[in-house]
């Protein structure tokens, strides 16, 4: 039922055809269940969609073809032919296992919602007298439900009647409100009120903190507010990270190139299909060149890239964990590096979420229409009972001020909260309401009776000063808060000898306007002085200054009734009478409190500004408080006009769609927001191609966390939020996000290095196979060797490149454009040049053995190119054993050159443009270790049986290794020359060309600081 909160109770009951006293009839229950469905929905089955990646599909096809071709092998090659497809299948299985595991983790957010589903509910129905307990899933719209303290609300309910003094509900899981909410049964006239303002509604999954009530169910199952959140989470498609998008694009381009090159190799060699080496069979020749095409496909695919990326990201997550950022989704590590907008909650992230009293005042003197105040400031911004009371920046002893002694007494007694020292966490925590805990902490700091706390343990210290005050006065009863009088009070009697009503007092705290209106006097020292209109205006003016200034303090007035009516005459069951007992009060003082910003947040905001990252505060708090905090921490400057930069959820809703989109582009503060607002803000930001990090801690935040590129949950948040997020902040600190962004940028820079390193290797392998096929030379490399190089010998140095030291100015640059290609322009030429050299070197090494090696056949290049025509009858090959062309030495030479060049390339990748003379390899000791390990593994397959048989290689002699080194080492000189050109000449030329060619187009595509 829509807008039930705006209708009178009788209208809601009439809509469902139900009475409060009787409830629904069995027939009505049956009809409503058919109409609205059960109060719950089965969890969606996890659909595993693996093998969708294009690279994986190409590998799968290569494995399938390799299995088929293995059946055609004869002799000793029959066994080794199956090694290649088996290895490929093992890679695919490993990738699939990881994929399934990640999918299950991603869906755990929906599973976690079960935590908030109540099991039972108490209903009134016509088929049975009184209240009956039934399963919550059997409750239907129209049911009359009773709730009491400790209950979990079983459905969305419109309150009919509150059967206690007050009804308080903890709905933080849904709305994010840090304190329990006082409810009532009156209609809310605004049909578009946000959930925080629907004070006459109880929401499914929330908890009754105090009181008792009866209401009518207006929504169940997926139609409840928490059910809508579940639907949003299911409908939210996870966004691919920028790196995943680039790799997808790379895969598509690579697949096209592979297809064209493979077809070209096969077609070019059609004339060789009937060569004698194939036994004169055209079909066997076609199969042979088809095998070469498959080998080419294997060579072109960087099989080790997924494993290396995963390893690098995993190492990055370990470093982040040490900084209190726990990453749940590995790809999000890289995404952090191009974050351009951070949407942060206020409470607990930008602020401490520990309400603290920071100012207070009492009356100094009153002379006619003139008065002066004693104003104090209080240090300490946590719940720790540590801090000083300052007057004019100087510490004072509170016991010397009679007004402060009385103020502390009111704070201690008009209070149901306390402090608790958590020995495992080593911190002080609140027990009860945040506002009252702040007063408890203030009393401890004031220590008005000079209690010796030096020898107390931290557990004893938590409430030591409050305990002293509570020993002097006994709390007899509490007049609970009500929204009409906006105050609460306690009736206290002295605990001394005689213990009678003489000396009884009523202590009152509440909203300043309401309390001061009922005050007739003020306390000056120990005297009771009449409160005149000018004095009242002076007090209210000071309170308004505190409430509307840069701090936007939450103010509480403290008062006392020195001669209250006798407790026995009070009608405590009638809350409407409480206002009469709280009359003729004496104003004692006022305290101003706030949830203070974290100390390190301001510097982190400034760091974000330098890094081109826009910070947006999104909070459920009111707009005034939100803007004030924004000014304090630097999101807004002190005198900045916030028009068009700060919106409430209501103001945002009233804008047309295009204006909403523009608001998201410009705004830095959203207040009084609901879950749907967060999701829409993320959508609009994504329409500007912003990479958005969104924080949250409640169930209500889960859809937005899942929709954003980076969902960040608080360590103190709900299980649902943590499950939907990519990252969890164990310390709930905004500054940790900034540290994670810095780490993400460093990781991306290193990933670019090892991705380019691996791709240049693959280019070399493709050139090698393509050259041998075009020139008609014997195979220089076979698929199983290519797999070994791509996965193992290249994988270790590539992983070690992830440990390259970050640039010192990494947070002084704008976020990179997520569409920026991994390899473009000059870099593409550089790595193509290196790849071509790798290909020429490997082919050259194999050819050298045939032509010049002392242990080789020393054939001519013409004979080598026509080796497929080698027969005993062919005069060109007179005196040559045709089996020599199947020797393992040339492939071993080619493989050794490939591995050695790749180790040299790893050294070249320590820096993109800096010379090895400026950035020597020992800056990354892990890289040197990885190179040693890779070479050791290469020696293993050459010299340790049965590895040579599996990889079809043979041990090399020392002279042959000398040749390998001579062919390999020049790649360092080649890359040094290319780096020199890049540093000293090409940057200016390319910049000029870009400006000339791109012109206005470039200006449109460049990211502005506002866009990130």
Automatic annotation (TrEMBL):
Residues 3-71 form the Cation-transporting P-type ATPase N-terminal domain. GO terms for molecular function: ATP binding; ATP hydrolysis activity; metal ion binding; P-type calcium transporter activity. Its main location: endoplasmic reticulum. It is a multi-pass membrane protein. It is found in: Endoplasmic reticulum membrane; Sarcoplasmic reticulum membrane. Keywords: ATP-binding, Calcium, Calcium transport, Endoplasmic reticulum, Ion transport, Magnesium, Membrane, Metal-binding, Nucleotide-binding, Phosphoprotein, Sarcoplasmic reticulum, Translocase, Transmembrane, Transmembrane helix, Transport. The gene is Atp2a3. One of its GO terms (cellular component) is sarcoplasmic reticulum membrane. Gene3D superfamilies: Calcium-transporting ATPase, cytoplasmic domain N, Calcium-transporting ATPase, cytoplasmic transduction domain A, Calcium-transporting ATPase, transmembrane domain, HAD superfamily/HAD-like. Coiled coil: none annotated. Its cofactor is Mg(2+). This is P-type Ca(2+) transporter. Interacts with sarcolipin (SLN). Interacts with phospholamban (PLN). Interacts with myoregulin (MRLN). Interacts with DWORF. The keyword Ion transport applies. Its EC number is 7.2.2.10. The keyword Transmembrane helix applies. It is an enzyme of class 7 (translocase). The chain crosses the membrane at residues 54-72, 78-101, 254-274, 286-315, 754-775, 787-806, 827-851, 922-944. Belongs to the cation transport ATPase (P-type) (TC 3.A.3) family. Type IIA subfamily. It catalyses: Ca(2+)(in) + ATP + H2O = Ca(2+)(out) + ADP + phosphate + H(+).
